[in-house]
Amino acid sequence: MGFTKVTSKVVLAQLRPGAEVLARRGAMLATTGQVSFSPVSAGPGGGGYGGGIASALGRAMQGEAVPLMVAEGTGTVHYGFRGHHVTIVDLDGSEPMSVEADRLLAHDASMSSSVVFLGQQGGLRGAVRGAVTGQGLFTTQLSGRGSVALLSHGGTFAMQVGGSRQVVVDPQAYVAHTGNLRVDVSASVGWRDAVGRGSGEAVQLKVSGQGTVYVQASEEKL
Amino acid sequence: MVDLDGSGGSAVRAATGSMVAYEGDVSFKNAGFGGGGGLRAALKQRVTGESLNLMEVTGRGTVHFAVGAGHVLVVDLAGEVLKAESQSLLAISHALRTDVTFTGLQGASSGQGLFTTTVSGHGQVALISLGGPPIALRVSPGTPLVVDPDAYIGAVGPLQQSFVSDVSWRNLIGESSGEAFSLRFEGQGVVYLQPEER
Amino acid sequence: MSTQPLDPQTLPDHDNLPGNAYAYCVRLTGPLFVQTGRMIAYYPSGGGTIRFEPLTATSLTSMVASHFSSPLYSRDWVVANGQGHVILGDRGYDINSYDLDDGNLTVRAANLLAFDAGLELKESIIPGFLTLLGTGRFLASSSGPVIFVEPPVRVDPEALVGWADCPAPAQHFDAGWMGHFLGAARSAVLGTRSGEERQYDFTGAGTVLLQSSERMLEDPHVVRRLEGEVRSLGVDQLTHLQGVIASQLQQQRQ
């Protein structure tokens, strides 16, 4: 149960009946024992990381849904993805974790997941009103007890939110968050100079509330 | 990754686009080209295309900078002169002066390595090393050093830099897109390299 | 975060630079095969020079040249000769040295950095891989630290760095997964490579080396090998191949 770190880029999952793992397609590096892999069928509320809500809204969101595979049986699987850094976070069930769709490598299948759109003020309504992709983030919210393996370019570091100082994050560097946090996507004139590189929109994520934000140690998109 | 504690009053200039996150009350202002080198430096940079887009960061808080998950090398300057590839510059203390110098014309294919940014004065310079921790190699009279220009980040000290046209260690046909020369350093100083080719 | 400068007098003879898994230093004591583009810096010592010569150079002894038996890759390699230290790096990958003692190891051509001229190099029948034989040291790079796994193990081809002592792998196509896949959307999906449909099966006694590889969009070795094979095709086969390439191009452009 859970993942163990093998290197900064590879984690190991032990599988047995009752302890299945969900991972993005293409993440399996090696497997021993008797393990079978099946694609998870897409559909509203299920399917790819970030894909559920898109289908529910009836909109085709290019590149937002990440296809998944479930691994079951008895044996081990080494997981990794394109040489990216992997961070393991163990959740004890008290707080859900929201992870940006592209940044989720794998998680225990026993956890429940749903899709949350972190958009501009208006949230989901903003998405329906036709907010353009890039103005928000599709995140997968994982609840329950289990292990989550996060992907990032370079390592991740945790920023505690809740003190007197506001916390602002470059959307391309946002990986995940836990706790009771409000993440607002907003444009900022000063930030325009700070970000300055090809995303077209100089937006920033303002995080408030009580919890932890996981940020990647690189400004590059995955 | 560099964390900078801008505790009110101290300002830092950093490469635009390198911000990852910040806490506190921090403001960012475009510092134009070169900043501190005056109009002459700004003009030189526009002409050569060597871009050194800096922004000024002031306030009270903690700012996290990063460039491509690179490792950071901090060099303390106490009156010496550091020459660096502008792409490798992450941040410099406000008091340092920057300038662009022309280091020679020798059949370079992409123009890289012809112009370098010179930083002088008293303060700290943060350089980015891509691919792994930076490598610092000492050069002394009698022990010259030859380096791959795509791995070269910067150098400190009175060094003579020349171009070596022997690049047999490269594959010039097909895949490799590196420079058609190597850099040779003689004299007394330290050369900084990164383990990954730009 | 400051770095202490290294002096040529105290550089290692054959080891990673202190504290740096991504750079490796070798003091030349004889000819060293080095893959092109992997040199970061070198200190020629004793007032001499360090020469890097292509494999066709007449100055190379026939013994050295005959140890490299791979016409396909010969232009990717040079021989370093001279006195002094050579510092090698590879795309920011982790570099490790390996000792072969009358052994054999097959490694992905793109990940082999350098090897002693005492070892023999041949091409593996698995495309894109080289086999080293004999006794000597070699350097291999990997995306992140290399992972060692013992057979029996099933591996994603992109994650494979190499294998030692055990037989070459067999290809395995996951029947269950293919069943799901083909059942779902047959026409649109046939021929598209995605996910885990093809794997390598290793059995026997030995070690398999793995990495979490960065996607190489265009592996030049694969193209070169395909070019070689294309030249031996007949008209019908070439026409068929042209059709396959055209449809791939169309898919990729979407």
Keywords:
A: Double-stranded beta-helix; eight-stranded antiparallel sheet; 3 helices; B: 198 residues; mainly beta; Double-stranded beta-helix; eleven-stranded antiparallel sheet; globular
Describe the structure concisely for a colleague.
In chain B, 6% of the residues lie in helices and 54% in strands. By secondary structure, chain B is mainly beta. The radius of gyration of chain C is 21 Å and the shape is globular.
String of helices and strands of chain C: EEEEEHEEEEEEEEEEEHHEEHH
Radius of gyration of chain C over alpha carbons? Answer: 21 Å
User: Termini of chain C, distance in Å?
Assistant: 45 Å
Unreliable segments of 5+ consecutive residues of chain A: 42-47, 51-63, 121-134, 196-201
Q: According to CATH, what is the topology of the domain at 3-155 in chain A?
A: Double-stranded beta-helix
Low-confidence stretches of chain C: 184-196
Which radius of gyration of chain A do the C-alpha atoms yield? 17 Å
Notes on the protein architecture:
The complex is a heterotrimer of chains A (222), B (198) and C (254). Chain A is mainly beta and 222 residues long. Helices cover 9% and strands 52% of the residues of chain A. Chain A has a domain at 3-155: Double-stranded beta-helix (4-Layer Sandwich). Chain A has three helices and 15 strands. In chain A, the strands form two sheets. In chain A, strands 1, 2, 3, 4, 5, 6, 8 and 11 form an eight-stranded antiparallel sheet that branches. In chain A, strands 7, 9, 10, 12, 13, 14 and 15 form a seven-stranded antiparallel sheet that branches. In chain A, strand 1 (3-7) and strand 2 (10-15) form a beta hairpin. The two termini of chain A are 27 Å apart. The model of chain A is unreliable at 42-47, 51-63, 121-134 and 196-201 (pLDDT under 50). Chain B has a single domain (2-193), classed as Mitochondrial biogenesis AIM24 (Double-stranded beta-helix). Helix content of chain B is 6%, strand content 54%. In chain B, the strands form two sheets. In chain B, strands 1, 2, 3, 4, 5, 6, 7, 8, 9, 11 and 14 form an eleven-stranded antiparallel sheet that branches. The longest helix of chain B has 11 residues, at 38-48. Chain C is α+β, with helices and mostly antiparallel strands and 254 residues long. Chain C has helices at 62-66, 175-184, 186-189, 220-230, 235-253; strands at residues 14-16, 23-27, 32-35, 39-44, 50-54, 68-69, 77-82, 84-89, 94-108, 112-116, 120-123, 129-142, 147-149, 153-155, 160-164, 170-173, 198-202, 207-210. Chain C is globular, with a radius of gyration of 21 Å. The chains are: A mainly beta (222), B mainly beta (198), C alpha+beta (254). Chains in contact: A-B, A-C, B-C. Chains B and C meet through strand 5, strand 9, strand 10 and strand 14 of B and strand 4 and strand 5 of C. Strand 4 of chain A pairs antiparallel with strand 14 of chain C.
